[in-house]
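User: For documentation purposes, I need each entry recorded in a consistent format: the amino acid sequence on its own, followed directly by the corresponding structure tokens. There are two entries in this batch. Please keep commentary to a minimum and don't merge the entries.

Assistant: Recorded as requested. Entry 1:
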Amino acid sequence: MKRSIAIVGVLAVFSSFLIQPANAAYTVKPKVGQCFMLTSSDVSAAYARKNPVKCSSTHNAETFVVTKWPLKTKPELMDEEEALNLAESLCRAWGDNGLIDNGFFTYWAWYTPDPAAWAKGERWLRCDAMVRNDANKYLSWKGVKLGSSLGI
């Protein structure tokens, strides 16, 4: 009897992995240093859609800033240019005080909580560094983090 209960338990855990959708929602708290394997549609999505991957595995984005969205207004309710300017000022990707000073990284994107997380009071802003080539493809790398030999 104990053996059949253990098998049922293992099957339940295993099946939970099988039925999760490929684009599961972002369910973790953002942290600097998280790595992601994003598609073009993930990069341009209004909200974070994928959980991080191990940085030792292939990835094409890494979080370089996590901060608080300073306004009560949801970014999607703001003028698009105004929201981008605010995100850019908080991410500080390039410029005089920019955090990304390595020519390897050519693109950055920003994300805020999805509507459900926003309704629960989450107000984070996550800024990710990427490499986008001339063909607008996001290049990936493996095992190298921003603070390592690539440096920021």
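Entry 2:
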Amino acid sequence: MLNEIIGILGLILIIVGNLTIYKKKAIRRKYTYPLLIVGGIFLTIYSIMIRDTIFIVLQTIFIASSIYGLIRINHRIKNKK
């Protein structure tokens, strides 16, 4: 039961993050990428709990790409100042 709750929560966070992806950069920086990262972490935990190796790898790559996106958007904002 707990693993399903973790999986559902992770999926909801990723969906909400994707719904905010086309907002202003300030909103993306503050909400989108953190939601994607936390959602990815929850889904990685879920993948570990159900022992799905392929999904663990894919979620790890998803988290890394979300972190890269957050770093990139923060770098662009710093360069504009």
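Summary note for entry 2:
The chain has a mean pLDDT of 91.
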